[in-house]
Design a protein that fits this description.
alpha/beta, seven-stranded mixed β-sheet, three-stranded antiparallel β-sheet
């Protein structure tokens, strides 16, 4: 997915489906930045085939913004991107401008701290923090126990291969999972509440 671009020091992100299918967007590589590969994004959005249109999305630890941009291309109503890196946030804003998309907010800040404030409810949350920094467990705990996600909403998790998903609270279920050489992927769903 990340290929060399003509500009030295940049790589490319390719949108693989929806309105902007085939569009290539340049981004500057940075330590810990691992845009989700095409084949894994394809799998994820096949899982979410009937859930993305009209969804409100949150792309925490957004990095290149690959997941949120893909969701917007496939008809998501809105996406909030959150990342600590000023450079990553600037590039996501530039990509949104290039694509002519005004259905997004880009927030520079720590994903876990951002969840400490009141927030809208979301239908899809993409959770792909830097590996081996202890961010995933704490962020996931906050998402699972808070009121950030609408009933029948989803959290997508991309993690290092040795990550083990803890037992989920009663109102959540594991919908899908997949493993690759160096990563594991989970899609969990919030069940309807009585």
């Amino acid at each position: 997915m990340a290929n060399n671009n003509n500009r030295k020091g940049t790589q490319q992100l390719r949108i693989i489906g929806g309105e902007w299918r085939g569009r290539k967007l340049g981004f500057t590589p940075a330590p810990g930045l691992r845009p989700t590969l095409d084949r894994f994004r394809e799998t994820l959005f096949n899982w979410l085939m009937f859930e993305t249109e009209g969804a409100r999305c949150l792309d925490l630890f957004a990095g290149s913004g690959a997941l949120g941009l893909e969701a917007l291309s496939r008809g998501a109503a809105h996406c909030t991107f959150v990342d600590t890196s000023a450079s990553a946030c600037r590039q996501i804003r530039e990509h949104l401008q290039i694509l002519g998309c005004d259905r997004a907010d880009v927030v520079q800040g720590d994903g876990l701290n951002w969840l400490a404030q009141p927030a809208d409810r979301f239908d899809l949350v993409f959770l792909d923090p830097p590996f081996h920094q202890g961010l995933l467990e704490a962020t996931l705990e906050r998402l699972l126990t808070g009121s950030y996600i609408n009933d029948q909403g989803y959290i997508y998790i991309e993690a290092e291969s040795d990550f083990r998903l803890s037992p989920l609270p009663d109102k959540w279920e594991l919908a899908r999972q997949k493993s690759a050489k160096h990563k594991v992927f989970f899609l969990i769903k919030k069940l309807p509440q009585d």
